[in-house]
Design a protein that fits this description.
By secondary structure, the chain is of the alpha/beta class. 38% of the residues lie in helices and 13% in strands. Helix 5 links the parallel strand 4 and strand 5. It starts with 15 loop residues before the first helix and ends with a helix.
């Protein structure tokens, strides 16, 4: 029987178990132990941020950012509709209204030319999402934010190891949020990190992450007891998660290089279909260095996409669509605002399909490429 090629297969570098055993021997499992510090220091050095706090997910990091900005009912935040629900939920939980913006045709990132028309006196923040690890047009976004006194929270869940004009994603705005979910490039099963640009926000972020207490200061000997001092929740991951992540971070550059090789193979192998008009390939703008988080193609219609996915599955290859736009979802429609047409977002929701991309896929690439060509020959 032909081996099934899954859409995703988590890559293990080999040292994860060793690190977990060491964490067990340390008898420090609840978080903020040696491995947590190791990961935070690695990310701080890599991003150049003032502070980095590990979290149990990128969702948690986004929620912390909303708390740090003191988002309240009646506030508005501007974000793309073509994103994961956590981007909106983190702010909706604080009572804010998500204002949905269309995305760019080339990168599927928030269309920076359409942001300013969405700003009202109630707008508090812009939430750019770096889709597929490809940077949004951050210079323009920061300029708009500065002009109107708005915060910028980067949803860089897919952006670890990517840069924008030499600047690491996640460390360009006021806050950045990483994900280490098993579908990402560098993983810990579940996990995330909050990147803090301005040191003045670090102490309160630490308090929010520790359930609103100054417990971390107590353990450092800075106070003689700890108590409830602010709003917060339990956003700190366990030390076992950090131990797993530390092994992955040690190999982050190697992992990224292997994924880029696969991405480039896809692009070269499918370029003829792009030139014939059968598909649209991803675009990497000048000044953006991506991390090959995903490889997607856009097909002409929902019907063709549905048939393509079914045919690839019949050939033993897992392909998936991606986000269903938030502005047209039941809850997004009820709590958000969509003041402008969303043609690019709607088209991406109907026509985008992601091809398998994981370290170890290289021996199967010819099979995937041949199947893609064969399936599309009769459909487009």
């Amino acid at each position: 029987m032909t081996e099934f090629i899954p859409f995703n297969r988590p890559y293990l570098v080999g040292k994860e178990t060793e690190n977990i055993l060491e964490a067990h021997k340390n008898r420090k499992l609840s978080g903020d132990g040696p491995f947590t510090a190791l990961c935070s220091d690695w990310l701080k050095k890599k991003t150049g941020a003032s502070s980095v706090l590990l979290t149990h997910s990128a969702t948690a990091a986004l929620e912390m950012a909303a708390l740090l900005l003191r988002i309240e009912p009646g506030d508005e935040v501007i974000l793309p509709s073509f994103t994961f629900v956590s981007t909106a939920n983190a702010f909706v939980l604080r009572g804010a209204t998500p204002v949905f913006c269309d995305v760019r045709e080339d990168t599927l990132n928030i269309d920076e030319t359409k942001i300013e028309e969405l700003i009202t006196p109630r707008t508090r923040a812009i939430i750019p999402v770096h889709y597929g690890g490809v940077a949004c047009e951050m210079n323009a976004i920061l300029s708009i934010a500065g002009k109107h006194g708005l915060a910028v929270v980067e949803d860089a869940a897919q952006g670890v190891m990517s840069t924008y004009h030499g600047k690491p994603l996640g460390a360009i705005g006021d806050f950045g949020c990483f994900s280490f979910h098993e579908t990402k490039n560098v993983i810990s099963g579940e996990g995330g990190a909050l990147i803090i640009r301005d040191e003045k926000n670090s102490e309160r972020a630490e308090i929010i992450r520790e359930k609103g207490t100054n417990r971390s200061r107590f353990f450092r000997g800075q106070v003689d007891k700890y108590t409830w001092v602010d709003i917060g929740s339990s956003y700190l991951p366990g030390e076992v998660i950090a131990a797993f992540l530390a092994a992955q971070l040690d190999e982050a550059e190697w992992i990224t290089a292997r994924r880029i090789e696969l991405w480039n193979t896809y692009y070269a192998g499918l370029e003829s279909l792009s030139k014939s008009g059968s598909i649209i390939l991803p675009t990497i703008p000048e000044g953006c260095v991506h991390n090959a988080h995903m490889f997607y193609i856009k097909l002409p219609s929902l019907e063709i996409r549905t048939a393509f996915i079914e045919r690839m599955k019949a050939l033993g290859i897992g392909c998936v669509f991606h986000y269903q736009p938030l502005h047209s979802s039941p809850y997004g429609h009820s709590v958000g605002r969509t003041p402008q047409p969303m043609p690019v977002t709607d088209h991406a929701g109907d026509c985008l399909v992601r091809l398998p991309l994981w370290v170890g896929l290289a021996p199967h690439m010819d099979r995937v490429l041949n199947a893609t060509h064969n399936c599309l020959r009769d459909l487009t």
